[in-house]
Specification:
Rossmann fold; alpha/beta; ten-stranded mixed sheet; 40 helices; six-stranded antiparallel sheet
Length: about 1200
């Protein structure tokens, strides 16, 4: 009996009215009769031993003690193991593991303790599990037995990584060491399907309750060579990856198990040199020679002959093609294997918007020449040959360009399509040391197999890493949610308390739908990308079904606890808890506040129109008709209306006078026809709705906004003679109401004529022309909008449910945010335009006009804060609508504020260049950023002020945006201000969001209407009160300090409206780029034979060298959204300009690469260029 396990007890019961001869039945599903034939058969074969034990108190109950022999003990002496497993699956529902049942003294009324029902006190949410994972604990001995791996681990702990310029924090060292350990010496982990149990005698065993597998000894798997780097946002994941690459620079991947080296053992006609023999052996053994030579190079050694000898050999092996196809009859034989070459390169796949950021991070954290980097983006037509790829330490490629390499099937065959040549990507010709997918949750965690994942399956890769602070919706650090907390004076105490509170609040299981989605994303990463055993095994080869063992619900849709999940996450994820990081690093304070503003007159007018639509609809439909907005069938239109109402807190031009008039007509008609039957409450609501609609129609300013799609600006003391011509509403007044676009045109007209005797001459005519052009555009836009707008069911669409008209980015009125002048247009020096060349009368008349405010309370606050803060701090303004961005940009231009924009309509290269410039340049102090583009990966630590224009409904999106600035590299406190108008729907939305539980937020993630409380709030929302004198008092409609209209305070003005982008880091002129492509340099046949290669690298000089200079040509100014003049082209200049920040150096080499690399700041001293379209960093 020593080999048997005290497995548990089967409770037996018999009916008392049948006496002592009544049959015993087992307590459990279907109450089978005892003795059971399966138990009898198993006992006869020696699999189990049973002992009958009467109950100590009740003769109608008894215990059947079961001892089981594990299948890995004396297995040869028994029959088929499948019968034992079938029995154990049966016993899983019948066995009671309690001591009381084993001793025959159980209480029949207490539930059984079974192996299928573990201790639910251990149950916890995915969020709680993720935030309580143990931090890495690595020692020098965890690097395995290979000398170079031990050396790499020692370098990490001793701060001696060759080429690394930045010193790592202690937690970063531990993360690098943990990643290195997982790569070179992966641990053994127990089979997660067979958790550990203890029998009633204390003996440990391992039992798979789903398949009935019972083992005395654990079944171990090697952990995957890789995992998930999940350090929280802003804590240096990029630097950790760079340090890992440097620590293992030159390391070769091992030949996979079962493969044979393909390096031929050739006989030499002559005795080879010792150098040749050593080089061949080094390549065969995979010795990391490159890092060794790099260390010697720092001591002054030269080894060109050694590298030349090493270049003659490649470590090769034969990789079988497991699904060979019969080839074309023209071929002699079909392919059943392919040759792969061992490469020390790391393939780094990044989102397109992070490509430039990665390049700058590599340059920032490494010494010149420390890493050879090849950059491949969407402009790279062909991937360089595999021979060139193997020379680089990092191949940096965008996800979009990487997906383009998947052009055939997923069987590694390079299938040939009819009429095309056989294609095989050069990326599949080598065995990569590792692949790193930055923000990899985007495609590695996709529920379907993307082209990127399919392409990775075609490649041979030893080590795989997903880099993401949020691998899944629930897999995010608790500290991310802390960014949403309002500022508290007791920072330390409140931080610790907030962490504990947030963890305990979300310890319980999450909502079912959210949990299922998280588990599916995690499964995709574990199975499809990391290839973790046994989950990634093929069926029939020890396959493990993820859903069977880890699904949060069983086959009957009952919630269950999966104890193996935490062990899986612990084996894959490298991260530190925030309290561990706080010991090593303390970020500057984060101050998050909500700024409640008094809405302006026009703010109230716009928002009340939405309320008018809802009120009129509710009353006239009597809340029962099909037209009632809150009917489920109208949900789409109601969502659009509520979203538009939230945006109207900044400004809204989506209502037409016809829509408002039609709503008033329907309301008045209903009121007249039902005057006797309508309730007092509905009557009062409808009357107030009519009053607010009529107020809008009677307001000339609102009518002008609706027609011209403009936002208003108040200018005090505008020249009287020109006031009528420039007034947006056609009414001269003081202050004068202009559109921001027209105000800028008036400003440009005066500044363009500063050298004349009277710059205001012609101002009236310019105003007439400007307003005529505005009317023409508005009329065309209205016609196009009416023609394109759909009408559901043949009826006119409900007012307010349509998308707001997109503001046209006219080239003459809206410039690129990069606004500088040519040298020949400089009219004065310094930062202020002096009006001294004019006569006294003209000077006085043009010095008086001042911008005193805008018709939007939020825009007034933003501009006032920007003007007061921009000299000392950099500012990010997050917006959620392109129209809002347009209006902010117009206002900043009008107020002479230099800014950049990160918009979803700009090309990826331009966005990246603007972001790099904002981080590095002292000229640009403001960055407008699309909220949708700021979710992951971006580093904007140069900013210390964050303004969120509209409250964000999803907390995760808000915290992601805040962490763009509050991260490693930030040295100053970060201040976040969310702008809210008092008494409005958005204030109630924000208040409700902060009260909601995680489950409620998940339920209402897509729409505020999915939250029952907010749904009720929206139904009962009232009108904003507007007093009679509110418009004249300009409440909420003024700047803190007026700004002169005709005075440029940001430098000289460009008369022709051209832009000069010489301060934009890495942004090449579109015209210069096209010219270079169309007019290639002439080469002789001798030069052609040398196959010159285009290389781009960081230079030591601060100069941007481009193609031959192009004569500047005046062009329309391009839009910040990529539209307008020149279709969003870059600067029209391609002249050589001095750079104020680190740029690129581009040159055409016609000499061998070794001779071309003598320039300052060049890369390594050997190796050819990257091939067509590549960029060498």
């Amino acid at each position: 009996m020593d080999d048997y396990l005290a497995f548990g007890t089967i409770r037996l019961v018999r009916q008392s009215d049948h006496g002592e001869h009544a049959a015993w039945r087992m307590v459990g599903p279907k109450n089978p009769i005892h003795p059971h034939p399966e138990l009898t058969k198993a006992e006869a074969r020696g699999w189990i031993r049973t002992t009958f034990l009467p109950h100590v108190d009740d003769p109608t109950y008894a215990s059947l003690k079961v001892h089981v022999l594990p299948e890995d003990v004396n297995r040869s002496s028994r029959g088929s193991i499948q019968h034992l497993r079938k029995l154990l699956k049966l016993l899983g529902d019948l066995i009671d593991t309690s001591v009381e049942a084993w001793n025959g003294c159980f209480d029949p009324n207490t539930p059984m303790q079974t192996y299928k029902e573990p201790d639910f006190s251990q149950e916890e949410s995915l969020f709680y599990t993720f935030n309580t994972l143990a931090p890495p604990q690595i020692t020098l001995g965890d690097a395995g037995t290979r000398v170079h791996d031990q050396q790499a681990m020692g370098d990490v702990f001793q701060d001696s990584i060759l080429g690394l310029k930045t010193q790592l924090y202690p937690y970063q060292k531990r993360s690098v060491a943990a990643m290195l350990q997982k790569e070179v010496h992966p641990s053994k982990s127990r089979d997660p399907r067979k958790p550990q149990f203890g029998d009633l005698n204390g003996t440990e065993f391992y039992f798979d309750v789903h398949e009935g597998v019972l083992l005395r000894h654990p079944h171990l798997y090697s952990e995957c060579r890789g995992g998930i780097l999940a350090e929280t946002m802003g804590y240096g994941k990029t630097l950790i990856c760079i340090a890992l690459v440097l620590a293992t620079r030159g390391h070769y991947p091992a030949i996979p198990e079962g493969r044979i080296s393909a390096i031929p053992e050739e006989y030499n006609e002559r005795t080879p040199s010792l150098l040749a023999l050593a080089a061949k052996k080094i390549k065969q053994a995979g010795v990391p020679w490159k890092s060794h030579f790099a260390a010697l190079e720092t001591e002054g050694y030269h080894f060109d002959s050694c590298t030349a000898a090493l270049a003659e050999y490649d470590g090769e092996y034969a990789e079988p093609i497991f699904h060979p196809t019969t080839p074309d009859r023209k071929n002699k034989k079909r392919e059943d294997f392919r040759l792969l070459r061992q490469s020390f390169a790391t393939l780094l796949i990044v989102p397109p918007n992070l490509l430039v950021q990665w390049q700058h991070e590599i340059k920032k954290h490494t010494h010149p020449g420390a890493l050879d980097v090849l950059v491949l983006d969407s402009t790279t037509k062909d991937i360089p040959p595999w021979k060139s790829l193997m020379k680089y330490d990092i191949v940096l490629i965008t996800k979009a360009r990487f997906e383009q390499e998947y052009r055939d099937d997923h069987l590694n065959q390079g299938r040939q399509f009819k009429g095309s040549e056989k294609f095989r990507s050069q990326l599949t010709e080598v065995r990569w040391l590792r692949v790193i997918c930055d923000e990899g949750h985007g495609f590695a965690g996709s529920s379907y197999k993307t082209h990127a994942v399919a392409m990775l399956d075609k490649m041979s890769i030893e080590r795989r890493w997903v880099v993401s602070g949020t691998p899944s919706h629930s897999l995010q650090g608790v500290e991310v949610n802390l960014a949403l907390n309002e500022t508290n004076d007791n920072n330390e105490l409140s931080r610790d308390h907030s962490i504990r509170t947030a963890l305990e609040r979300r310890r319980a299981k999450e909502a079912a739908d959210d949990e299922l989605k998280d588990m599916e994303r995690l499964r995709a990463i574990v199975v499809n990308f990391l290839k973790v055993q046994p989950w990634a095994n093929q069926k029939g080869a020890d396959y493990a079904d993820w859903k069977k063992y880890l699904h949060p619900f069983d086959a009957s849709q009952n919630r269950r606890f999966a104890p193996a999940l935490k062990a899986i996450l612990q084996s894959l994820i490298v991260r530190h808890r925030i309290e561990d990081i706080d010991v090593d690093l303390c970020l500057p304070p984060l101050h998050n506040t909500t700024v409640c503003l008094e809405p302006s007159y026009y703010d109230k007018l716009s928002m009340n129109l939405f309320r008018m639509v809802l009120t009129s609809n509710a009353v006239t439909s009597e809340r029962v008709d099909d037209d009632y907005m809150f009917q489920p069938k109208n949900r789409k239109y109601l969502d659009e209306l509520i979203n538009n109402q939230r945006r109207s807190s900044f400004h809204w031009v989506g209502f037409t006078t016809h829509e408002v008039a039609e709503t008033l007509r329907v309301s008045k008609k209903y009121l007249d026809e039902n005057l006797d039957t309508i309730s007092d409450g509905d009557g009062a609501l409808l009357t107030e709705a009519i009053m607010n609609g009529e107020r809008a129609l009677n307001d000339s300013g609102w009518r002008a906004f609706s027609f011209y799609h403009e936002i208003g600006v108040y200018v005090k003391d505008f020249p009287d003679a020109a006031a009528q011509a420039w007034a947006l509403n056609g009414e001269p007044s003081n202050p004068l109401l202009l559109g921001t676009k027209q105000a800028r045109e008036a400003q440009q007209h005066v500044l363009k004529h500063l050298e004349s005797g009277d710059p205001s001459f012609g101002l009236v005519g310019a105003g007439i022309r400007a307003m005529f052009a505005a009317r023409e555009r508005a009329t065309e836009e209205m016609k196009a909008r009416e023609k394109a707008r759909p009408s559901p069911n043949g009826k006119p669409p409900t007012a307010g449910t349509a998308e707001e008209p997109k503001i046209k980015n006219q080239a003459a009125t809206f410039s690129s945010p990069v606004r500088f002048s040519k040298a020949e247009t400089l009219l004065a020096a310094g930062h202020k335009r002096i009006l001294s060349t004019m006569d006294a009368e003209a000077t006085a008349s043009l010095a008086k006009p001042k911008v005193i405010g805008f018709t939007s309370a939020k825009l007034n606050y933003l501009c006032s804060r920007v003007l007061s803060l921009q000299r000392a701090e950099k500012i990010i303004i997050f917006y959620d609508s392109n129209n809002i961005a347009f209006w902010i940009a117009e206002a900043l231009e009008l107020l002479s504020v230099k800014f950049l924009i990160y918009a979803n309509t700009l090309a990826v290269a331009r966005r990246a260049a603007y972001l790099a410039t904002f981080n590095q340049s002292d000229v640009f102090r403001v960055l407008l950023m699309d909220l949708k583009q700021a979710s992951h990966g971006l580093h904007v630590a140069a900013a210390t002020r964050i303004f969120i224009v509209s409250p964000i409904w999803q907390p995760d999106v808000e915290s992601q945006a805040i962490k763009r600035a509050h991260r490693i590299g930030q040295t100053r406190p970060v201040y976040v201000e969310t702008l809210v108008l008092k008494g409005t729907l958005e204030e109630k939305i924000l208040k409700r969001r902060r009260q909601m539980s995680k489950a409620e937020l998940v339920k209402a993630e897509k729409s505020v209407l999915d939250d029952d409380t907010m749904n009720g709030v929206i139904r009962g929302e009232g009108f904003l009160k507007i007093t009679d004198d509110e418009k004249e008092r300009m409440k909420g409609g003024t700047l803190d300090d007026p700004v002169p209209l005709f005075e440029r305070r940001d430098g000289p003005f460009s008369a022709d409206g051209t832009e000069d982008s010489d301060l934009i880091v890495g942004l090449e002129s579109e015209r210069a780029r096209n010219k270079r492509r169309k007019t290639p340099a002439k080469r002789t046949r001798k030069d052609h034979d040398k196959r010159p290669e285009r290389t781009v690298r960081f230079g030591a000089t601060d100069t941007l060298l481009l193609s031959p200079p192009v004569t500047p040509v005046a062009q329309p100014r391009s839009s910040i959204f990529g539209g307008g003049g020149g279709s969003g082209s870059d600067s029209p200049f391609a002249t050589v300009q001095p750079k104020k920040s680190v740029g690129f150096m581009i040159e055409t080499n016609t000499t061998p690469a070794s001779a071309a690399n003598h320039g300052a700041g060049s890369g390594p001293s050997s190796g050819p260029g990257p091939g067509p379209g590549g960029m060498l960093t």
